[in-house]
Amino acid sequence: MGDSNPESDSQHDPQSPTDSVQPQMTMHPITYSSMPTMHMYPFPPGMVTSQPTRTKRRQVKNACTNCQKACKKCDDARPCLRCVKYGIAEECIDSQRKERQKGIKRGPYKKRDGKTTNVDEQQVDVAVQPQGIPVPQAVAAAVPSATPPIPYAAPVTYPPGFYPQYPAPPAAKPGETPMYYPQIYFAPIPAPPPPQATGQDGEPIGYPPPQYYPATFLAPYPPQYATQYMMPHPAHLHAHMRPDAQMPMAPAHHYAPYPQAYAKPMPRGAEVAAAPQMVDARRDGRMDHTRMGEPIHGAQAKA
DNA sequence: TCAATCGGACATTCAACTTC
DNA sequence: AAGTTGAATGTCCGATTGAG
Ligand SMILES: [Zn+2]
Ligand SMILES: [Zn+2]
Predict the structure, then answer these.
(1) Strand B, CB < 7 A, residues 244-303 of A
(2) A158, A163, A219, A271: which has the fewest Cβ within 10 Å?
C-alpha cells in the first residue's frame, strides 16, 4: 500500500552497503511498513527508482502469545507494549516455536539457469507416520535411522517464571534493529516526540515516547513486571492520555488484574483473546495457546 | 465509534540440496 | 564445506464485523 517510508526500509535494505545499518540516532520512532495511506514519496518521483518503494515489513522474532493469538503486532520487550496496554502483562509470554520437521525430501532444485538437476523423477510422497509426523517414504525406507523421526522436541523454555526483562540487546544483527531497548527511555528528551502514526490498535507505529520511564524506577511491581511501559513520566501523572494515544496505565499503584487495568470497561473481553480465562480455540483453530499445537491460521503453506 | 475477528500477504527460518 | 533454494513456519496488516 502506501506504506512507503524513507526510513523504514533503510534498516533492512538488502542493497545497503553495510548490513548492519543502524537507524542513526535520530530519535525517529521506528517506522513500520504500514503507514497511514499517504500518497507521497520520500523523494521526488524522478529520484525514485521505478519500482514503487515498498518497505519491508518487520516482525519480531517471537511474538508473545497474546499478540500471536490476536494477530497483532508485538515487540521485543516483555511484557510487550500491547499486553501492557491491555493490562495483561502477566500473560505476556514468549510463544514457543515449533520445531521444524526434518527428513523431508525436497526433490531437485531448479537452478538459476532454469534447468533442474533431475536426479530422478520419483515422486516424494509423504507418508504420515503413526506419530503424525510426515516422513517422506524415501527417507523412512531408505534411511535406517539416520534421521529418526524427530517428534517435536521438547521446547527449550525459560525456567518457570523467568522471563528476562530485557535480554541483552542483540548486537544489531543484519535486519534487526536494536532500538527498542530500555536505555533509550532512561533519558527523557526535552523535545516532544514527533507525532506518531498509530497502528490500528492505537499502538504507536514507533515506540513509546520517552516520557515514559522504565517502570523499573518507579513502579512497585515485582521486577519481572516492571517495564518501561508501565508508568508514565511523572510529568504526565496527571494526564490521562498518553501522547501516543495509548491507554494510560491505571493510576493504581499495583498492576491491576487484567480487567480492571482498562481505563474504561472493556466490553467484550478485550481483543486479547488473551484473557487467560478466555483463551479459547479460535474457530479456525489457528491458535491453541501453545506453540506446539495446531498451526495458527496462515501457517498453512502457501500454494 | 471502536474493539474483536480473521483471511491472507509478507517475513523468517533452516534443512535439503547443489556446487566447489 | 560453503552457498543456494525453497517449503515450513511465523508475524501481523488491514478489511470486515458487530457490540455499545
Ligand atoms: Zn505481544
Ligand atoms: Zn505481550
Answers:
(1) 266-273, 282-284, 286, 296-298, 302
(2) A158
